[in-house]
Amino acid sequence: MTLPLLRPSIVAYNGYDSGLGNRVRVVLGCKSLADHENRDFSYVWPTGPLFGPKFPELWDFSGRTISRATSRVLAKVYPYVDETLTWLDDDKRREHVWQIRTGSPIQLPAGARSWQEEFRALQPADEIARSVTTFFDAHLRGAPYVGVMVRAHAVSHSVTRETSPVEWFIERMQQIRDADPDVRFFLSCDVPEVQERIIATVPGCVAQTDKGAYNSAEAVRASIVDLYLLAASGYLIGPHFSSFIHLAEHLAGDRLILDTPVNPHAEPDYLRQGIVNDPLRPFVRVDQSGAVS
Q1: Is 10 helix (H, G, I), strand (E, B) or coil?
Q2: Of 97, 121, 145, which closes a domain?
Q3: Is the pLDDT of residue 237 over 70?
Q4: Is the Cβ–Cβ distance between 44 and 66 less than 8 Å?
Q5: pLDDT score of 115 more than 90
Q6: Using CA atoms, how far apart are residues 21 and 238, in angstroms rounded to an integer?
Q7: pLDDT above 70 covers what percent of the chain?
């Protein structure tokens, strides 16, 4: 869809190889800025072998899209700017189009709604919502559990692979289980063979299966299911240098402790946060007394 340019606008630009976490925070941050500045909003969301689904296939989101080619033509007149907003002054406000190209969170002005708030307000697509609820009801409802995310795929960031080996996660999960033999784990893993190994090694561990080819539309939809199930846990164990695990934190209302190989926690407390009744709203919790928080 081409940009109408009928009103002052903001374009959020995502690269073809941008991952889910970067895309979500850039799009929602730019949307918030557009609302704050009373501008129309559009976004670039490339799809293909490196990333299959469109945004509305994942969440109920109705923003206008434009192609990378259109954005690049516009950049000859309206050059790309970054997330810092140091460029935002009276002269810039007179420009018809702002194009923001970044992989980082937008440094929003005071008074703008945070991208995390925008994110929590999103509703998953119907198919994803059904999968979240079905899995949660079958395996996780009714008691606290620990959410574990492992990144082992060859295309994962080198920093993540180097700092967050699979063995560390298995050892950490076993330590928690030694202290509480009844503990349950929900596992999100991007390599089926590694997932099977962890489940076979650590009792009380459940995970989705048959999630599709890496970065296909099916696999990304399955990752969103994982995201909500991780966020509905009482404690998170995840890799260093991953934006995906931080999405789970934000979805849970930034209330969960995140345990990583780089920043471990000696005494994990996955009971304190209470339990989630609606896994599509994991930021709402019920404590042992029945009080909602």
Answers
A1: strand
A2: 121
A3: yes
A4: yes
A5: yes
A6: 14
A7: 97
